[in-house]
Amino acid sequence: MANLTIHQLNKSFAFEKTRREVLKSLSLSIKDNEFVSVVGASGCGKSTLLSIIAGLEDTDSGQILVDDVPINGPGLDRGVVFQTYTLLPWLTALQNIEFALKAAGYSAAASRKVAREHLELVKLSKFANVYPNQLSGGMKQRVAIARAISYRPKILLMDEPFGALDAITRYQMQELLTKIWEQHRLTVMFITHDVEEAIYLSDRVIMLSVKEKGIKQIFDVNLPRPRDKEVMSSQAFIQLHREILDNIHQDIDSESLL
Q1: Over the stretch 61-82, which tens digit does the pLDDT of each residue have?
Q2: Where is the ABC transporter domain (predicted)?
Q3: Has this prediction a pTM greater than 0.85?
């Protein structure tokens, strides 16, 4: 049974005196504990799709289901991490996580206990009482991830979460995310412009098309786990990377001719 099901999703936005179609008849199923990345040229609807699944954006028509139950706005079954650091600046790292847990119905004592456990999970126990403006970008995202998974969502939705980080920190965050995913059996939808990142992290890579307003192609990532940096130099990785990039470039070229 699919954990996340998207059925015949349509979405458009007002544009001058008409409407601009972004997603058209998009259908997709993501299984329990599957890691799926979504790639595609700018304007293909990646972030719009994630916002709809998160319950932050309405649809024109179609249905989103989690374990066969239609979603109706944001819910505790879905955790969300954005590229921008969405921590509350007046709360410490620990308090940011506690805030989410209390909102989810945890008691004060349970919130403190679970928050500390998740700071330990992301290797930030020593920074529990530090405010966001005193943390590096990578540290802020670690707190954001800890907060998003602290109340045990079924699905983790991530919109370019590492896009603003330097290369070394980005790789460290990819390693951390992989370990958390393996340990907590999350279903993950990960939006990225970085095809190499998508392949490295994922079981499947979904390519959205600007021209077709939906899924152009789905690529299976048949690379053994656990993965390390060495896999990126393998022939299978390089070939898949080239194939996905070629498809994205073709989509951009075909759109530019319209």
Answers
A1: 999 999 999 998 999 999 999 9
A2: 4-235
A3: yes
